[in-house]
Design a protein that fits this description.
InterPro entries: Ala_racemase_N, PLP-binding_barrel, PyrdxlP_homeostasis. Belongs to the pyridoxal phosphate-binding protein YggS/PROSC family. Pyridoxal 5'-phosphate (PLP)-binding protein, which is involved in PLP homeostasis. Keywords: Pyridoxal phosphate. Its cofactor is pyridoxal 5'-phosphate. The protein is about 45% helix and about 15% strand. By secondary structure, the chain is α/β, with parallel strands linked by helices. It has a single domain, classed as TIM Barrel (Alpha-Beta Barrel), CATH 3.20.20.10. It has an 8-stranded parallel β-sheet with strand order 7-6-5-4-3-2-1-8. Strand 4, helix 5 and strand 5 form a beta-alpha-beta unit. Helix 1 runs parallel beside helix 8 and helix 4 crosses helix 5. The longest helix is centred in the C-terminal third of the chain and has 21 residues. The protein is globular and about 50 Å long. It starts with a helix and ends in a 6-residue tail after the last helix. The model has no long low-confidence stretch (mean pLDDT about 95). It binds pyridoxal-5'-phosphate. The site of pyridoxal-5'-phosphate has 13 residues, from strand 8 and helix 9.
């Protein structure tokens, strides 16, 4: 087993023990391996360690990776999640290549992803990115903007709304992390009440530095980069 595979194994066992510790159901938390800036070889290591779900932030580099795996490893049916900020001039590439998008934050982006989805592909599984910390410079919509976006997304045939995502302010304090994540959990519960017909089963929250608090607060999908692939030179 190489380092990446050891890291994945360790994180899965951390997830399992956190699920137990916090009374979460077994297998209720998925691991998304965030492979941005990392080469195809690193992703291949993870794939050979059993990893199926990958998160990418930058359109151009991710397209090359996705096309490589679709061409050479189609039988593995890897799932690709776009988790970076989306500019409207990049929606076509995202719509043509990704299975999931976590960062829907305005009507125009949702509409374009829907309109540009190629015929014959399954709907894109989408999450609304929420700003839970009321900082203006953070990405994501505020609570009062969510409902209009839900109404739009549910009217679009090529998008399937699955839940919410957030990236809270960076802090190393477990309790503060937990409070921030809990806001997203409460919002999702509110949405579930208001839209009982939707299957909102996904809360994308928790990264390398705060996964324990995220699991405690109800995360169903962790986005883990550094703890799997090592440190990055972020753009
Ligand atoms: C880079 C990134 C991650 C992974 O962060 P790590 O701290 O490396 O685990 C998760 N989510 C988003 C949106 C990211 O951009």
């Amino acid at each position: 087993m190489n380092n990446i595979q050891k890291n994945i194994k360790r994180i899965i066992s951390q997830i399992e023990s956190a699920q137990k510790k916090y009374g979460r159901a077994r297998n209720s938390v998925q691991l998304l391996a965030v492979s941005k800036t990392k080469p195809i070889e690193a992703i291949l290591d993870a794939v050979q360690g059993g990893q199926k779900f990958f998160g990418e932030n930058y359109v151009q580099e991710s397209i090359n990776k996705i096309q490589f795996f679709r061409k050479n490893y189609a039988n593995l049916s890897l799932k690709w999640h776009f988790i970076g900020p989306i500019q409207s001039n990049k929606t076509r590439h995202v719509s043509e290549n990704f299975d999931w998008v976590h960062t829907i934050n305005r009507a125009k982006i949702a509409q374009r992803l829907n309109d540009q989805r190629p015929v014959g592909m399954e709907p894109i599984q989408v999450l609304i990115q929420v700003n839970t910390c009321s900082e203006k410079n953070k990405f994501g919509v505020f609570e009062n903007e969510i409902f209009a976006l839900v109404d739009l997304i549910t009217s679009l045939p090529n998008l399937t709304l699955r839940g919410l995502m957030s990236i809270p302010a960076n802090t190393s304090d477990h309790q503060s992390q937990f409070i921030a994540f809990s806001k997203l959990t409460k919002l999702k519960n509110k949405l579930t009440k208001k839209y009982p017909q939707l299957e909102l089963d996904t809360l994308s929250m928790g990264m390398s530095g705060d996964m324990d608090a995220a699991i405690r607060a109800g995360s169903t999908m962790l986005r883990i980069g550094t703890s799997i692939f090592g440190t990055r030179n972020d753009k």
